[in-house]
Amino acid sequence: MTLGxxxxxxxxxxxxxxxxxxxxxxIVTAFEPRFSYLKKPAFExxxxxGAGIIFHKNRTIMNGESVASQLYxxxxxxxxxxxxxxxxxxAAFVEIGYGYKGIANLGLSSRF
Length: 112
Hints:
By secondary structure, the chain is an all-beta fold. Helix content is 0%, strand content 84%.
């Protein structure tokens, strides 16, 4: 299972006296069955597919006052045909796929 969070803020000016802020945040939760092509103690080549729900929150602020707010959910998926993890307890990983994690995903992971 995976859990992720993202947030963004866009500031702008509609006219000389109108400032606008657009806030967006989202939380995704999904189940991700993972299968290995090759698994060794310090190296793994794998693939996975995920499906879940993404929760969105949008808020518009104009001249310091909240003028609109919206909460909604969408189904979401991920297909990652190639993932590489190198390391034992602490490892680096690289994943190539398409969906809620984007096209390229890389970082550090740990196993307990």
